[in-house]
Write a structure and sequence with these properties.
The structure holds two protein chains of two kinds. By secondary structure, chain A is an all-alpha fold. In chain A, about 75% of the residues lie in helices and about 0% in strands. In chain A, helix 1 runs antiparallel to helix 2 and helix 2 runs antiparallel to helix 3. Classes of the chains: A mainly alpha, B mainly alpha.
């Protein structure tokens, strides 16, 4: 536990981070920016897992292990998204959301 | 002391997250994201999960950021400025997010958390033993599944990013 910090303050910070991510997800018009916003959202949820594990159930490890899995899935997702973006740029020369009209061919 | 470090870290996280979603230069926005991720690693260090902080620094700050920077450099001109949403749409989204945040905070502050005062330190050996244990509550099956998932993602990323060659010779093969 962090001395002098209650669970409410950490949860407040992560909620703010989560909604900043959602704001970016809706307002940005570029695929890479959308990817950055998804990273923010995922990170906020991972911190929530870890903090709730530490403050409420300190002798268990479930929260930590779930966060490791979330980080691994996020890494896989980012690699796939980046490869899709590069392939898309090669075909339509743009990474704007509004230009993305085709799924295949 | 730890209290002030936490406040500094949270200010860093929130300010750079806002800069990251509102900057009009692509590369700067990625670098701001790097600061956010380092701040979160600092929070993990503060609550004594050293292994998780190390993972955060290596996987996120070392791997994902480099990948995103590569894609930015391959796809954009550095000095190009991004198109932004209309002000009306921005303010509507901001309002929506603020109301969602209000709902979240209302729920959090009205919930009665049974906080256990503790100073347990978790070593990396504990995390590893839990990950590899096949008894009840162990995580050996998801651990194996995630390794297959990573392999599949790696192969998929290579296949998708390779694409088709741009010569005429390949057309009859496809």
């Amino acid at each position: 536990m962090i001395a002098g910090i209650s669970i409410f303050e950490i949860l407040t910070v992560t909620s703010i981070l989560f909604f900043i991510g959602i704001y970016g997800f809706i307002t940005r018009k570029n695929l890479i920016s959308v990817l950055i916003s998804i990273e923010l959202i995922l990170n906020a949820s991972v911190v929530n897992f870890v903090v709730i594990n530490k403050y409420l159930y300190p002798d268990m490890l479930q929260g930590v292990i779930f966060s490791i899995f979330i980080i691994a899935v996020a890494a896989a997702e980012t690699a796939l998204a980046v490869s899709i973006i590069i392939n898309l740029y090669r075909q339509i020369s743009s990474v704007e959301v509004k230009d993305t009209e085709i799924m295949k061919y | 002391m730890e209290k002030y470090i936490f406040y500094i870290l949270s200010v860093i996280i929130i300010v750079f997250a806002m800069a990251s979603v509102s900057s009009r230069k692509m590369l700067r926005s990625v670098i701001y994201l790097l600061f956010v991720l380092c701040g979160i690693a600092g929070i993990y260090f503060l609550i004594d999960y050293n292994f998780l902080a190390a993972i955060q620094l290596t996987v996120y700050a070392g791997g994902i950021i480099v990948l995103i920077i590569f894609s930015v450099l391959l796809v954009h001109h550095i000095e190009m400025e991004l198109e932004m949403a209309k002000p009306l749409r921005k303010s509507m989204t901001g309002l929506l997010c603020l109301s969602g945040l209000a709902v979240f905070l209302y729920t959090i502050y009205n919930n009665d958390f049974h906080v256990v005062e503790n100073s347990v330190t978790t070593s990396t050996a504990d995390v590893g033993a839990k990950l590899l244990s096949y008894e009840a509550g162990g995580f050996i099956l998801p651990f194996e599944v995630i390794s297959v998932l990573l392999l599949a993602a790696m192969i998929g990323a290579i296949v998708i990013a390779k694409g088709r060659k741009l010569t005429d010779k390949n057309d009859d093969v496809l």
